[in-house]
């Protein structure tokens, strides 16, 4: 039996980032992973420029009592370069974003001066030398690595790539991941269902989870608990995808064949993890494809995906520095727990005038998918801990898209 942390570590160690890459327009690169470091080809801003609408002047002309009168010798709108040198006793009308003319090192806001025809009166204390000037290279210095390979591209990364003059970038290829449900009792949603059968929910939840990661999910349907059918499905998936996700059939029942088949046609790494929900899990490879055998219970499958498979897929996708977003919240009820298993209870997290607070969603059976539906987070309860008291601080992790 592995602790949860050890199991996650073992899975992560077995995954190597995919080497395939593609060139994409920055406009279409949201959620993708940069394949190369990106360096700045020039300074941003390229010239010192004004952060305000006002007057550009020499800081040395400012006075500490009374006011100074400066003669306006130029006007610089944004987008124009003015080569008139500002000399002692002179100023230039300037607008936000416009480069400072030579000689000027300070901008005074127009609200803080008096204008008399072509003379500006700047009272003492209106501005200090260098105020309201954005220095050259303030945002990005030429030659610097602005974004590292492995960076997850968010809207701000799209913006900065464009500001560097790059309309397209190299990104890692999206992995293709097969999703397979197993079980004689499992039937496709909406089709004829016998009295002892259930509609497949795992494939739907897992495809949704994959899509939140930007992975391409391939639906391989429901496979019965029969050796030949499972073998064919796994082999076919391994030829078409980078990774295979199955649910069900990894336990110790007579119909739990997933482990056997994996062992027969690939490499298996099966273990029980000291976590609830989601004890038995199977990992391995079939040819070059990674294999993630998740438990069949709908909550277990989702929790194991979020806590173990998701970090492994980020690694496969080449993302650096991925950390789940976790924070502390105050528990609003007591929770009974025996030491020995790490528990991931479903919680409802809310922000109140007392800070973040969390309650459980009620019954926590691993077949109760409504606990995921009612909840918006997982509550982490440590392996070695027993009961939790109301009022304790616990770690919580919001669900994706919450
Ligand atoms: P298993 O690990 O195959 O014994 O499955 C454990 C439990 O999860 C059983 O109650 C199954 O009926 C249920 N289950 C397995 N696969 C699915 C699925 N795709 N959708 C919903 N429930 C499932
Ligand atoms: Mg089964």
Characteristic terms for this protein:
six-stranded mixed beta sheet; 402 residues; binds magnesium ion; alpha/beta; binds adenosine monophosphate; 19% helix
Question: Can you describe this structure?
Answer:
The chain is of the alpha/beta class and about 400 residues long. The protein has seven helices and 26 strands. The protein has helices at about 5-15, 155-165, 200-210, 225-240, 260-265, 300-315, 370-375, and strands at about 20-25, 40, 50, 55, 65-75, 90-95, 105-110, 115, 120-125, 135, 145, 170, 175-180, 185, 200, 215-225, 245, 265-270, 275, 280-285, 290-295, 325-330, 340-350, 355-360, 375-380, 395-400. The strands form seven sheets. A six-stranded mixed beta sheet has the order 7-4-6-5-9-8, with no helix packed on it. Helix 1 (about 5-15) crosses helix 6 (about 300-315). The longest helix has 19 residues, at about 300-315. The relative contact order is 0.13. The model has no long low-confidence stretch (mean pLDDT about 95). The structure holds adenosine monophosphate and magnesium ion.
Question: What is the chains' assembly state?
Answer: single chain
- SS-based class: alpha/beta
| Through-space gap between termini | 32 Å
Q: Write out the distinct hetero groups bound to the structure.
A: adenosine monophosphate, magnesium ion
């Amino acid at each position: 039996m592995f602790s949860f942390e050890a199991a996650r570590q073992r899975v992560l160690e077995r995954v190597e980032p995919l080497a395939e890459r593609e060139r994409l327009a920055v406009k279409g690169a949201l959620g993708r992973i940069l394949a190369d470091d990106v360096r700045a080809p020039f300074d941003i801003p390229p010239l010192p420029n004004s952060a305000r609408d006002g007057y550009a002047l020499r800081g040395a002309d400012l006075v500490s009592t009374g006011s100074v009168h400066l003669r306006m010798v130029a006007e610089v709108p944004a987008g124009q370069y003015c080569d008139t040198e500002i000399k002692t006793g002179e100023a230039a009308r300037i607008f936000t974003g416009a480069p400072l003319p030579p000689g000027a090192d300070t901008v005074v806001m127009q609200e803080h001066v008096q204008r008399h025809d072509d003379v500006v009166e700047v009272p003492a204390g209106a501005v200090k030398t260098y105020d309201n000037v954005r220095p050259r290279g303030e945002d990005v210095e030429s030659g610097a690595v602005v974004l590292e390979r492995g960076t997850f591209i968010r809207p701000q990364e799209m913006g900065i790539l464009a500001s560097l003059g790059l309309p397209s970038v190299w990104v890692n290829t999206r992995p293709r991941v097969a999703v397979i449900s197993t079980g004689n009792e499992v039937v496709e949603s909406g089709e004829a269902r016998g009295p002892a059968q259930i509609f497949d929910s795992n494939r739907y939840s897992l495809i949704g989870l994959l899509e939140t990661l930007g992975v391409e999910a391939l639906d391989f349907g429901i496979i019965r608990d029969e050796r030949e059918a499972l073998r064919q499905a796994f082999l076919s998936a391994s030829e078409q995808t980078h990774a295979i996700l199955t649910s069900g059939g990894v336990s110790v029942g007579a119909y739990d064949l997933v482990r056997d088949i994996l062992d027969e046609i690939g490499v298996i790494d099966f273990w029980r993890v000291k976590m609830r929900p989601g004890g038995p899990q199977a990992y391995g490879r079939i040819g070059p494809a990674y294999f993630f055998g998740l438990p069949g219970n709908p909550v277990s499958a989702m929790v194991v995906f979020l806590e173990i498979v998701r970090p492994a897929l980020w690694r496969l996708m080449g993302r650096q520095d991925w950390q789940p977003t976790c924070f502390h919240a105050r528990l609003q009820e007591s929770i009974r727990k025996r030491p020995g298993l790490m528990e991931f209870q479903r919680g409802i997290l809310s922000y109140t005038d007392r800070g973040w607070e969390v309650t459980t969603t009620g019954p926590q059976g691993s077949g109760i998918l409504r606990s995921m539906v009612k909840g918006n987070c997982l509550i982490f309860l440590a392996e070695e801990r027993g009961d939790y008291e109301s009022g304790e601080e616990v770690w919580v992790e919001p669900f994706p898209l919450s």
